Amino acid sequence: MTNKLFTLLLSFVLVSVMISSPLLTVDANTFDENLPTGFEISNVSAIEEINPHYTIEHLTLDGGIEVSAHIVNGPPHPPEGFEVERAASMIPLTGATALPDFPSYSWVFGCGAVAGGMITAYYDRNGYPNMYAGPTNGGMMPLTDTAWPTWVDSAGEEYPNNPLIASHKGVDERTTYGSIDNYWVSFNSTEDDPYITYERPQHTWDSAIGDYMKTSQSYYGNSDGSSALYFNQNKPDRYTCSAMESHQSESGDWKVSEHDSTYGRKLFYEARGYTVTDCYNQATDNKVADGFSFSDFKAEIDAGHPVFVFVTGHFMVGYGYSGDDILIRDTWDNNPSNTYSMPWGGSYQDMEMRAVGIVRPVPPGNLAPTNIYLSSSSVQEGQPVNTVVGILSTADPNLGDTHTYTLVSGDGSADNAAFNISGNQLRTSQVFSKADKDSYKIRVRSTDQGDLWFEKMFTITVTDASAEGQTYLPLILTAGETTSRSLMNGDFEAGPDESWTEQSSHGEPIITEFEPGAAHSDVWAAWMGGLHNSVDRLSQTVTISASQPNLHFWYWISSDDVCGFDYAHIKFNSTTIKTFNLCTANNTGAWKPAVLNLSAYSGSTATLVFEVTTNASLLSSFYLDDVSLSSSATAASTDTTQGTPLIDMIRDKRQWEGLQ
Description:
Layout: H1 2-7, E1 11-15, E2 44-51, E3 54-60, E4 66-73, H2 83-88, E5 97-98, H3 111-125, E6 150-152, E7 158-160, H4 179-183, H5 194-197, H6 209-212, E8 228-229, E9 239-240, H7 241-246, H8 261-271, E10 276-283, H9 294-302, E11 307-311, E12 314-322, E13 325-329, E14 340-343, E15 347-348, E16 351-361, E17 371-374, E18 378-380, E19 388-395, E20 403-407, E21 419-422, E22 425-428, E23 439-448, E24 453-463, E25 501-504, E26 511-513, E27 524-529, E28 535-543, E29 550-559, E30 566-572, E31 575-582, E32 592-597, E33 605-613, E34 620-630, H10 644-647, H11 653-659
Parallel strand pairs: 1-8, 18-24
Antiparallel strand pairs: 1-4, 2-3, 3-4, 5-12, 6-7, 9-10, 10-16, 11-12, 11-16, 12-13, 13-14, 15-16, 17-19, 19-22, 20-23, 21-22, 23-24, 25-28, 26-27, 27-34, 28-33, 29-32, 29-34, 30-31, 30-33
């Protein structure tokens, strides 16, 4: 029953071969009536009808080349009865190797286009800009498809919109017909596409990968929801895209490259301005000895490339591995937290692994760094030469770029000689005295391995040393400080007024305006984290008085991660006085009060720092509001009256910003 139920599952064509085309753009407005569609041609030597939803056509091409076409058009929903098995396949990311921040989309237009769309979205979000051409989410493809409204077709079926997969009039500011308007009737429909029926021009292909994959296009013999993939299912060899270009019908009136969906992915990347290197389809080693292996799969993931996976009757995406399992997106779920898996060479919901499609775009040319960050911008007086002031880091659109740091002349470089740089450490070159001078200006350049650079001016503040003979914790500056610094803008309602110093490794704002009811008070609060591999710091120099030594603040933890990876630290200069482990077990679900006794620092002026660090796995956020110093050592009660919008708020900061 399960095999039959599963083969009723998806409709696309898989033929054993692949292609590589030099096209950069495709104008589909003209229609060549002489071009045959589908596979209703003399080249079909045998047909295996597995069931009404899955057919294998064996073809003999010009020169005796034999290929197999696996034609599958299953439904846009997972098979009934597999809910428990599907849920049981989910595995934690702890200990797994996975491409971070991997998109997850629900079925629309066809599983092949959705799988291709998720791969393309990952590239768009990770160093391959302009794969997605729309305005949503600030021009970066969102992690999920919930940013767009759903739509209903003529059969009454509701689907998500996803313009990277299939364009649609009225979506992403589109004013003309797109993929949905021109190619879709209803699932499994074999009727002529609407643009043919209504005798109107097609749209120009540019922004939707499903167009290039020929998904759901009757002109290419694909019923609504189906795609085509070509490869030799009985041989272990890679069938390359360049070979597909030369493989044609015996009459020479059509080529494999005109139908294969992997070749279509190549065309899309080229249309977006990228060069493609590796491009092929290959049977997996569970079907053919010496075929595409688990080691090959892991090598793709380790190199930062998702894998297009074909199982019986369905296309999916592999984006990681753990033990003998691979992590997959099955095209039926838009929740990135659901980490489904299947054993390598095994089956997923009774769909056996059969082949893969590989298309590798070349990363864009080197781009210049865009910002420089310094972890700390103050140093105590009296410290020896080569004392570390802070750690330098760089924002760069090219992921993985390395950077060298130098002090350079220019605006704000007057005091460069007082400092030196070793690696990524800014260090002192002299012993400072605050009485002589309390601030220094330097200019730093960050240069990537391609000799592109960015420069920024920093002001380094000299702080008081501890008075001789007094005993304080290590970061106390002086008990004799005469200039008191009050805590400013503790409720953040003045916005980013420079009372607080904001430092984000991704260049994102920290002090954020939320919708009413989200912040603990009014509408402004601090949001740290919310992105992968981030280091966010919010700092302010304050004086701890004997009468008000207690630091009060409100916080909210919202995390999808397990414990032990993401953290929030509260520091007084570089001494950590409180740590929060950001993970699902510690999610607060409400604004929580906290109080820290800083009486040991009474009379001293130093830098108060709130710092959040996240890793490459699941997202964590730390929200902060209403920071104050008080005489009271008692924390307030948990506040459940505010913050309701945070409960269901998107945890990806960039995706949230794109919706504002």
